[in-house]
Amino acid sequence: xxxxxxxxxxxxxxxxxxxxxxxxxxxxxxxxxxxxxxxxxxxxxxxxxxxxxxxxxxxxxxxxxxxxxxxxxxxxxxxxxxxxxxxxxxxxxxxxxxxxxxxxxxxxxxxxxxxxxxxxxxxxxxxxxxxxxxxxxxxxxxxxxxxxxxxxxxxxxxxxxxxxxxxxxxxxxxxxxxxxxxxxxxxxxxxxxxxxxxxxxxxxxxxxxxxx
Length: 212
What we know:
Blueprint: E1 8-12, H1 18-28, E2 32-36, H2 46-49, E3 59-62, E4 65-68, H3 70-80, H4 94-117, H5 135-148, H6 160-174, H7 182-192, H8 195-207
Helix pairs in contact: 1-3, 1-6, 1-8, 3-6, 4-5, 4-6, 5-7, 6-7
């Protein structure tokens, strides 16, 4: 699992959130090396645990830096390779909205959807104690965001925020963990039309073992 400093090493499993990072890497257009890990085996093996003690994917290593968590990886890669144009510069007024929605999806959306799937949503009288408030409020806000995308979250400019927020919406619709909304469907259709999304999906689908 060694790497050269400039090489992007991508640890993943095709049936994981690694699919988000695969899409990001394909949008980036930089070469990378894929290391596929197996749940309960190499993913929890000592070699990988030395890289990510959580034993989870996705994880990348680049320039000697380990980055975990899909939103953080998308943010890091967009900043590490600015020529790809996937993140507004620090002095760009769009930077605030870009970060806002990236981490809205990584925080409230992820938490609310996971809590609902597990039957662990906070009761309404305790909504103020959780970052997402209520599931309905979070999904309604996400719907407003998707409806405002014209065609992307930053207007004409596609960014890493579209990769991460878009992945949450695409998964939410696929697994029915989010209610169907016209804005989600329209935004998702534009996302799935991107060549990088199609390449990434094909690469990951090809790595899924056939069912016996």
